[in-house]
Amino acid sequence: MGRSEGAMCVAANRGHRRVCERIAAHDPNGAAEAMFTHITAAWLVRRSAPSGPVRLDCW
Length: 59
Fold this sequence. Notes:
By secondary structure, the protein is mostly helical. Helices cover 64% and strands 0% of the residues. It has a domain at 6-46. The radius of gyration is 12 Å and the shape is elongated. The chain has two helices and no strands. Helix 1 packs antiparallel against helix 2 (28-46). It has helices at 6-24, 28-46. The two termini are 21 Å apart.
């Protein structure tokens, strides 16, 4: 369910990469913040109207 355009998949992969980078850097606070940002942004964008944003600035 939700939107799944190619640009959104690229943005989602960037969010996942940020989480992994923070984990690899042994930065639990940074990983938690990156995951929160990723989940929140994905939820907002995927559930927006068709004319809504393709991605949020925080990605």
